[in-house]
Structures are given as C-alpha cells and as structure tokens.
Amino acid sequence: MSETQPREDIAGELGMRPEPKDTDSSKDKSTAPWSVQSVLSTIPNPPAASPSPTSPLPFLHVIERLKTTPREGWRRFGLSSAESIADHMYRMSIITMLAPRSLASKLNLPHCTKMALVHDMAESLVGDITPVDGVTKEEKGRRERETMMFLGRGLLGGYDGGQQGEELHRIWEEYEKGETMEARFVKDVDKLELLLQMMEYERSREGRVDLGEFVRVAQHIQMEEMRTWCTELLAERDMFWRAVGRQDGDDGRDGDRRG
After folding, report:
1. Which among 75, 44, 72, 48 is positioned nearest to 60, based on CA atoms?
2. Which of 201, 223, 232, 235 reaches 20 to 30 Å from 27, CA-CA?
3. Comparing C-alpha atoms, which of 54, 53, 96 is closest to residue 192?
4. Distance between CA atoms of 203 and 194, rounded to whole angstroms?
C-alpha cells in the first residue's frame, strides 16, 4: 500500500463502504454488516480523507474514544459511571511494569507494557463487545482486525513511513494469537486487572453489588506468579464479604472457583 494512498482506496482494501448512521454503531442493531466506515459516519469530526505524512494526529483523535467508551460488563450491574477502556489498559500497563522478578527475567517487559496499551485499541471503533451482545467470536475478530488495519495501516500509514502503525498492528496480532510468553503474560494481566476492578466496585459500594460472576476468569490465569497474586486478591475479597456479614459463595460471588 502506498504511503500517500487516499483513505477511499484504503477503505476499499479493508472492505469498508458508507452505510446509514446508527445511534449505536458499535452494537449491530441493523441488518447491515458492521464496518469501520459505518462507525466513522457517526463521529462528528471523522479523520481526514488521507493519512497525514507529518504527524499521527488523526490517529490520536480517534483513540481518544478509548477514554470515553465504558467497559460494558459493569454497566449490566447498574454501574453507569464505570471505568473506560483506557482506564483498564492504563492499570494493565502499570501491572506489567511490576512483574515479579521471577517473571521479569524471562520477559521483554517494555514490550509487554506496549502490548497492554495496544491490546484493546480496536475497541475505539468496535466498542466493548461482551458475550451477552449476541456477536459471535468470529464476527468480533473480524471487526477488530478491520479496525486495526484502519488505525495502523490507514491513519498511520503515511506517518514515519508507516513503521509505527505496522508495529502497533504486529503487537496487537501477537496478543491475539497468544503464542509468545509476553502475550500469555499480558492476557493474565488483563484478567487480573478485571478481578481487581470487580472487587473495588463491590467494596466501594459496601457490598450492595455482587459481581461474583466475573470470578470465573481466575480459572484461566496461567502463569504461577499471576495465579499467586490472584489467590491473594480473592482471599482479600472473601474477607471483605465476611466483614459485611455474608459468607463466601453467597449469590454466586465465588463463581466456579471451586469447580
């Protein structure tokens, strides 16, 4: 792809086409296929028609949406002021920097920090799709791949010879494949950060909200060091629920952890 290729041509390569505006473009309520262009058509100030060769500003304007798009899983429990996608990725990046020495010696930690900041970047246009939204895993993957192509090879395609955009795209693909040790570590960090936020919402609301269905993700944490942190966190959570007069496991708080 040419570094000065117009966005209309990029759109053709990515299978994008104009579609009618939808008030909730990230959640498919119409029969029209989701596309990057369908989301861009709802943005008040969409990025310029061609990638900038001098700066990443169009890209930066788009990813601002990560700061204002909420993590949807919490909203089902009435947490209307829940964290944003950017909030989640920020603390993940800090966690990677605090990796235990036994892990840090085996990992490229700066690369892990980049991965934490990139792994949900596609949600700037796709939104935070949850299992209850009725979008298949394959369709979710298609939307995210299309978005990352648009961000990395489209908006950043003309900046710095396209090298920065290609790096972001490679890091995102590495995370998605989950084959490297760095990717497996960041996937564990993703789950640990969710569990931290789960407990913090329960504690800040003094036990008036039960988010126990999220505990099940603890079963999928792979690395021993991260499992140790997770066990400590869940023990802390059990103590909290006992302190408010409810036993471990009430109303699903323990999830499938014992299963």
Report:
1. 48
2. 201
3. 96
4. 14
Half-sphere exposure of 31 (CA within 13 A, CB side): 0
Average pLDDT, the chain: 85
Identity at 37, one-letter amino acid code: Q
Q: Are 120 and 85 in contact (CB under 8 A)?
A: yes
pLDDT tens digits for range 216-229: 999 999 999 999 99
Residues written for the chain: 259
Q: In sequence order, what are the beta bridge partners of 70?
A: 84
CA distance linking residue 142 with residue 195, whole number of Å: 27
Torsion of CA 32, 35, 41, 43, to 10 degrees: 130
CB 206 within 8 A of CB 171: no
> What's the average model confidence in pLDDT over 136-157?
95
Q: How confident is the model over 48-91, as pLDDT tens digits?
A: 767 778 899 999 999 999 999 999 999 888 898 899 999 999 99
